From TrEMBL:
Transmembrane segments: 6-25
A molecular-function term among this protein's GO annotations: iron ion binding
Protein's name according to its UniProt entry: Cytochrome P450
Keywords: Heme, Iron, Membrane, Metal-binding, Monooxygenase, Oxidoreductase, Transmembrane, Transmembrane helix
Gene3D superfamilies: Cytochrome P450
One Pfam family cited in the UniProt record for this chain: p450
Origin superkingdom: Eukaryota
Listed cofactors: heme
Recorded coiled-coil stretches: none
Pathway linked to the protein: Secondary metabolite biosynthesis
């Protein structure tokens, strides 16, 4: 008893001394370390939670960057300071530090800052944080949400094999056919333009992922996919920022508990993609299932789940992103008829005037201005798969602490790159040299100007393609070759055949759409109106040929 009376206080004193020593050592070592990147004022405990808007947070980040952001000196330890020129002090801030409960965020506001970390040190910045909301939806095995490790690398390999540049070249006939179907749907005018664009985005990835060919008219698989997917994208909240993401324990609480709304919506989402998909034609799913069977693995094997998740990812990551990109393209054409005219002059030179044929992939090199429109669409309003609302998927730091001058970044400080802010970096004189005229960046309203990429001898600014459309480093979009070729052929075909006009109001005046993005799992332009008409008689004749070709295939 007496011994216990002595040992307990001794033990408590020992523990307290250890804790005190640890605290002193940490304070000392942190004293020597550089500070965190600059940060706007925050609340105690909840940090910036109250100040990060759920709608278009990227605009707030831009505003904060101007006031609080620090220069991109993350590369300090990789390169000598003189790589930064004298404009550095006048630049908008490249790097911001934000804190919300359970998560610390480094916002990289420029392509250089993003490349410095996510590309040059991608070995360290390729992890992902946990996304409980997607676990609940049954997407825990889907590549975008996988932690960096063996499973991720195996997934990545599967994607690269099926969606690599050479493999995608083999899908060109199917992509051209889908672009033709898109044309006919516009000419028939039976459906809303967004439904037509969504169907194109879906048809291609469903064919590649699951081997299902979508019919032009009602298709039960498509109808289920479209309805359920629309529900999901509009009900799951901002990725990585729902209450359930920030406080994972909420998923275990009953539905009436505040904050569990997202979890309940997610629970009600079934992984319908896997059930609905047919596997009749050669596809990603069929190819990998055959491989599993050859290895003697049956349907309850863990690898089977991984393959189903990968095929589901092709659909989820690929369909909306193409749909949104096409919608942004039409919006740009409505707002900038001068770009349309210039592209059509180029198309007429290559395809004949009157038109002799539709464009195909072999024409891409001969159509520089069409290519500029494609690249400017990516830059102007950035869309990301799975709707990061211009925030790319969070990259997470893997090792213990990063002490690169002048900022300290520790483990669990989650990296978030901002696609929407990459355009802004192009205003920096230090990046691309001085420009004529003043160009003010105002978020996503920045000027749509495809000529910026043309050489100065042709009246352009000679800018390189904007960085970051498909992400950075080891998590860069594996579907980028497919996405880019899908978008290119659809855009080139539409420009060849159609003129895209502003709709008129009741008094006959042009309706000029406003540019804005929806927030949710998918970043999509706000609804806008436009008129799509055949451009001339030769376009009409080509459409009649396409119709006959498609009818013969039915
Ligand atoms: C215009 C269309 C598309 C755009 C703009 C786009 C863009 C992106 C971006 C920005 C990321 C995040 C990269 C990062 O974390 O650094 C990403 C990831 C991803 N994308 Fe795409 N993407 C598109 C189409 C597609 C398509 C068609 C597919 C599949 C067929 C696809 C599959 C994926 C996957 C699986 C990931 C996750 C990669 C990982 O976590 O390692 N994407 N995409």
């Amino acid at each position: 008893m007496a011994l216990e009376a002595v040992t307990l206080p001794l033990f408590i004193t020992f523990i307290c001394t250890l804790a005190l020593l640890k605290f002193i050592i940490q304070r000392r070592s942190h004293g020597k370390l550089p500070p965190l990147p600059p940060s706007p004022p925050a609340d105690p405990i909840i940090g910036h939670l109250r100040y990060i808007p759920t709608e278009n947070p990227e605009l707030k980040f831009t505003e904060w960057s101007k006031t609080y952001g620090g220069p991109n000196l993350l590369a300090y330890s990789l390169a000598p300071l003189d790589i930064f020129d004298t404009h550095i002090h006048t630049c908008l801030g490249d790097v911001l530090y934000l804190k919300v409960p359970n998560r610390q965020i480094i916002v990289l506001n420029s392509a250089e800052a993003a490349a410095d970390l996510l590309e040059k040190r991608s070995g360290n910045y390729s992890d992902r944080p946990e996304f409980p909301i997607f676990d609940l939806m049954g997407w825990g095995n889907a590549m975008p949400f996988l932690r960096y490790g063996k499973k991720f690398q195996e997934n990545r390999q599967m994607f690269q094999e099926y969606l690599g540049n050479t493999k995608v070249a083999g899908y060109s006939d199917m992509q051209i056919l889908q672009a033709k179907q898109l044309v006919i749907e516009f000419v028939e005018g039976k459906k809303d333009k967004e439904d037509i664009l969504q169907k194109l985005g879906t048809a291609i990835v469903v064919r590649i992922g699951f081997g299902h060919d979508m019919f032009r008219e009602a298709d039960p698989v498509y109808d289920t996919l479209a309805t359920k997917h629309k529900y999901t994208i509009s009900h799951c909240g901002p990725v990585g920022a729902t209450p359930v993401d920030l406080f994972p324990f909420l998923r275990f609480f009953p539905s009436w508990f505040p904050g569990t709304l997202y979890a309940n919506r997610a629970r009600s989402f079934v992984s319908f993609v896997r059930k609905e998909a047919g596997t009749a034609k050669s596809s990603f799913l069929q190819h990998h299932m055959n491989l599993l069977q050859q290895e003697g693995k049956d349907e309850i094997h863990e690898d089977f789940e991984i393959i189903k998740a990968a095929a589901g990812t092709i659909f989820a990551a690929g369909s909306d992103s193409l749909w949104s990109t096409l919608s942004v393209f039409l919006l740009a054409m409505v707002l900038h008829p001068e770009c349309q005219v210039k592209a059509q002059e180029e198309l007429d030179r290559v395809l004949g005037n009157p038109l002799q044929r539709l464009p195909d992939f072999g024409d891409r090199q001969s159509l520089p201005f069409v290519n500029c429109i494609v690249q400017e669409t990516y830059r102007w309003v950035a869309v990301t798969p799975l709707g990061m609302n211009s925030l790319q998927l969070l990259h997470q730091w893997t090792s213990n602490s990063e002490t690169s001058q002048p900022y300290l970044i520790e483990r669990q400080r989650t990296m978030s790159t901002m696609a929407c802010l990459f355009p802004r970096v192009q205003l920096y004189p230090r990046t691309f040299g001085p420009y004529p005229g003043t160009r003010e960046y105002t978020g996503m309203l920045s000027t749509f100007n495809p000529s910026r990429y043309l050489p100065t001898s042709e009246g352009g600014y000679g800018e390189p393609w904007a960085a970051g459309t498909f992400g950075y480093g080891r998590r860069k979009c594996p579907g980028r070759f497919l996405a880019d070729s899908n978008f290119w052929i659809a855009a080139a075909t539409m420009l060849t055949l159609f003129s895209i006009h502003r709709a008129k109001d009741s008094s006959g005046k042009d309706i000029i759409p406003e540019v804005g993005l929806k927030t949710g799992l998918s970043s999509h332009p706000n609804p806008y109106e436009c008129e799509i008409k055949l451009r001339n008689d030769s376009a009409r004749a080509l459409v009649a040929e396409i119709k006959a070709e498609l009818l013969a295939m039915d």
